Task: structure prediction
Amino acid sequence: MAPFPPTIKTIGLFSLSGVVDTERLERALARLSAWGIHPVLPRMAPPLPYLSGTDEERIRMFYEVLDNPQVDALMALRGGYGVTRILDDLDWERIRQRDIPIIGYSDVTAFLMAAWKNGCTKLFHGPMLCSTFGYPDEDKETAQAANISANALRECLSGNPFPTLPGTKLEALKPGTATGPVLPMNFTLLRSLIGTPHLPSLDNTILLVEDVDEAAYSVDRMLAQLKSAGILQKLAGLLFGQFTDGEHPELLPELFMHYAQFVNGPVAAGFPVGHDKPVTSVHFGTIMTVDVSETAVNLRPQN
Result:
């Protein structure tokens, strides 16, 4: 089943970050077609060693699909690195006026955060085409995870701002209740925005952080920076997603518990958001109430 509701029939694909793998792209495009989704690719730029094109070319490719009137939604091809190089040069009024869903995670979360600050509302922390749907046919385990992720994205785009996944076990770290916009962010990208005009105030927000390939000491350093910057103390709540493939993951629960004490509101861990598989999708900036007791974690959207 397609990862998009029936109202979305044509997907514009963009690459603001790393080089796109041709084989993964071909497999993912074939899946879109099999689902009855029409993909629209921009004229791809010559890739650089770790970028899908020059800054100017990546912006050009993005606008090419953004401005296409046939496109119903935009999805990133992959993450990597590159978004923070071009945030200063994007036309946020142009993006806001187009007003269609934009989907991505990892490096793309820097774009989502800046777009949210600039008044965009149809932003979704969710799968990227090649990263999630470019798996080989014989990879049954990844295929199953991709189907779960696709179902969550379709549910999110259809109005459920934070779908739950089967078997998810959330951990209460600090009891409390808070209401605010949920901002799902890659932790490294969040840090890269501190001190720039692209980071909105995080006061009274519910921050959801995740990362990949970061050792426990690096996660510690990120949390210490948020504390020293006074950000942790002003959050409405803090949620920890997936921290995948980092050294000494056994140290993370203690780190999370240590820094939870500096958050005035509820803190919880175990959310299936990040670089592991499967993942859920989140409507970026949606207003949620997070209720954490000693033994349970509940999220309720506020309409």
